[in-house]
Design goal:
Layout (H helix, E strand, L loop, with lengths): L3 E10 L2 E11 L4 E5 L6 H9 L6 E6 L2 E2 L11 E3 L11 H11 L4 H14 L15 H13 L5 E5 L7 H18 L2 E6 L2 H7 L2 E6 L2 E6 L1 H6 L4 H6 L4 E9 L12 E4 L4 E4 L9 E6 L5 E3 L6 E10 L3 E8 L2 E8 L11 E5 L5 E5 L1 H6 L1
Helix pairs in contact: 2-3, 2-4, 3-4
Length: 364
Amino acid sequence: MSFLKLTDVTKFYGGTRAVSDMNLSVEKGEFVSLLGPSGCGKTTTLQMVAGFEAVSSGRIELDGRDITHAKANTRGLGIVFQTYALFPHMTVADNVSFGLEMRKMPKGERAERVKQALALVHLEPHAARYPRELSGGQRQRVALARALVIEPPVLLLDEPLSNLDAKLREEMQFELRQIQRKVGTTTVMVTHDQSEAMSISDRVVVMEAGRATQIDHPHRVYEHPSTRFISTFVGKANLLPGRVTAGGSAHGDGNGKGSRVDLGALTVDTDDVGFKPGAAVLFSVRPEKLQLVDAGRGRLDGTVRERFFLGSQWLYAVTTPLGELMVLSPNDGRPALDEGHATGVDWPDHCARLLPDEAMKVAA
């Protein structure tokens, strides 16, 4: 049985549908991220779970209890806001203790719980400091300790790392995950940062225009995106229009192949099945799955138009008969290709994906 369950949850603001028929089941102890661009409905979904926004229709259950219309202060959830929302006139210890005071916990027990929470986030030496005396990362940890000290059934995180610089943000991603695993609290996080969601989540809910378009493990979301939007929002992808000339069924087509696709200047095979001959598709391959080889040795030849140094990788823009392709190559000590250099481009069949060409459907 799911610990947190959303069934057909919908939210209207006047005539605008902000969230549409959201169905999500979160298991106890699971870390789930709602991922999507601004305005996709992820924060509204989190606020409905928290009780800060009313549900227009649908149902929210927590551990088998219907909380759809329960007041926020009766749900007992831990919440970390984007701005941390710390009390500036209170010390770190008092900020963390506040929720326990509201629950009328005895002073001695309260002090012990606060001490444990600060130890969890490595802030024991800073208990007497005020928020203004802390760094951004330390303030984020105080907000996390304050949310966890009440031992909530669910921890809700609203863009908790967005105010941190890039290096600290990356460090805090993994620290947040370690704390969550140690405590075992069921966690739902909202983020627009795909690397953040992919690196620390058990499952990712990709949202677009108020709908959950794919709910899956991070690796599957990246390697098997279900739509064009997901393939480009979660990482980068080369997308080439094509048409299926031979489609494999869901049980295979007998020759060990999936689908054959005509890309115009090239016909390729993929492992994807379920596409009928004649179907308009997008042939998708990630830049890091493409390999630069000697000219004449790959599936097609091209010319390096531009290159960008990314530290651990080189990003090449390669002009080919199929159009321009992005290629990511490791900076592994081999000489980088110069702009204007002739090269071959290759890839393994199993690294390519087919997506329905929605634009062609609309045109038809």
